[in-house]
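Quick entry, no commentary yet.
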Amino acid sequence: MALLEIKHLVKNYDGEVTVEVLRGIDLKIQKGEFVAIMGPSGSGKTTLLNCVATLDQPTSGSIVLEGENPHQYNKNRLADFRRTKLGFVFQNYNLLAPLTVIENIVLPLTLDRQKPAVMIKEAERLMGELGITHLRDKRIYQLSGGEAQRVSICRALIHDPSLILADEPTGNLDSKSANSVMELLTSMNKERQVTTLMVTHDAFSASFCNRVIFIKDGRFYNEIYLGANRDEFYQKILTVLSHLGGRSHELLQADY
């Protein structure tokens, strides 16, 4: 059974005029996959991620993660599901400036009321694994963008979630930092079998994934898989993007 299964997902935004954003998306993601979602501006890729993240309520259809449909839960149970099953990596990091690096990392564990010594030990172990131990006591304003994103990834992994959701994780980074962050996400996917779903406009970042799914006008358009050659995979991504109307290196970043 797939780790994540999306069936005929529809999302409309009601107003003076109803905006149809997702128009029947079907998608399965297996445990351990690293999947990118790409599409032109307004294609619905961000809305799709938000629905999986339980931040948006689908108009119709279902989203099932490890046999659970969280959109059927009440507010308290939904919060528990989001905290324990999902890890989030955002473009803007979403780290708390008043806290140190290690305090940011252990924050999800404090909600589970774990003992401080246990939380610190787990955070230090994971920081060592991700190569950021030297940042332990720094404040967020002292970090580079790449360092901040590595801390964000560490925080997302600290409670061993079933699924990591990454929203434009390299969007604010220079090319060197972006490469470093994507290599980290890839290594975590391979070594820890962390299932990851990433929305990106960047073909280079997408080429680190096992599979890229393209959507257009709220519908599935195409998908391609990583073969033996990553450079060829990157070129295939660019080819599909050109058919979708994207630019050679990136698509317009604005999205629903």
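second:
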Amino acid sequence: MPVAFGRIVKSAAATFAALTLASVLGGCASVYNQPLNEPSANPFGGIVRPAEAAESGTPGAPGLRSDTVIGLAFSGGGTRAAAFAYGVLDRMAQTPTAKHGQLLDHIGVISGVSGGSIMAAYYGLKGPAALADFRARYLTQDLMSQLNTSLSLGNISRALGGGANTDTALRDWFNTHLFHGATFGSLIGKRPVTIINATDIYNRTPFLFSPQTFAAACSDIAQYPLAAAVAASSAVPGAFAPVVIETYPEQCQTPLPAWVTAAANNVDAPPLLRAYARGMTDIRSGRVKYVKLLDGGLVDNLGLSGITIIRAGQTTPYGPLTPQEAVNMRRLMFLVVDAGQGPKGDWSTTLEGPAGKDLVSAVVDVLVDANSQTSYTAFEATMKAWREHIVTWRCGLKAGEVSRLRGRGGPWNCRDLKFTIARISFDQLGPERARALSAVPTSFTLPADTVDALSRAGGDALSANPAFQRFLSEM
């Protein structure tokens, strides 16, 4: 869930009074961010691999080197989510496998949204080394003290004018403590493929920080700061002004992928895919000059929609895998690490309510959770269909083609392909512990003992997950 702006809103009465006065002044205050992306005549910057890699939406990414692959999606939830995700990765690092090396070596893709994007981006940049210092560099730091969070007329007026904060303080803090000026160019050619998700608030769709999305804007993602993408993914409405991506449609001739044009014009295309494709075509056409981005949790707090979109846009049964990867893969485990909160508040036990800030919170929770449930259902259907398409394709190959793609001969079962989705969440740890963890507020700053409790919970929830244990035994 997006980081709550609760430190500004102390009570419904105080808020109403402040808003009434601030609305008079709001027309004088305009808060906005400057775009950081630059125009490019060659948006891919020469990083595209052969045709099958360009199709995947992850140009420059190396091929998978194992028949066993792990995917990760880290949910939103501020530092609560980042600490929970950290605990999952840390437990994976401590989990031995019989003959497949380190478990972390099998991570092929990692997707993050809002608070989860902080852990995803840092791990994507540093790999397993990120686990050595993420707690000290982020989890136990006081980021909130660097932001405008007090209940004041000035902050309320700024919030009405676009946002109480620009992205500058947040982006600078991320750079100082985590990213040190790194751009997406630092992720090119590395595994895992890292997907940072924000929300395009005009098109009301996920915004993927990907080469294809930036190419639509005639801009090179390799030059875009990681800290800015994470700030966009975490930009809570009201607390932050939207992060801005400027489009330069006149600057390049790079064609949109064929699937984008086809989906945008196909009224029968899946709604999520068509909306995303139409957003891409609007960017390229110049109808959208400035893309405005807010917290990715607004449209999908689990970070799964981006992966669904990437798969839905493929024109082969196996994409975004290469043919070699699709023939050699045997097991794919996708872990959805969900640090979302359960229902909260006591108004369900009384005739009155919710009212004031409880009403606003309840409405936001309904929207965020409903979108997340929809994205999870769509992701499950996508993964099931993808597995079936790969098996059908594999079983239709001739023996000589199989040997060529495998790089060796010998026995091979075309149907030996298993996809598993496992949700790692608080509710797998027992009612009492789950209630305590769910009560942790959505904030950028938490006490050190709470951070450690969340990290332990992430590891324990992973170890206790039956699907994960079956996956280990099959390895």
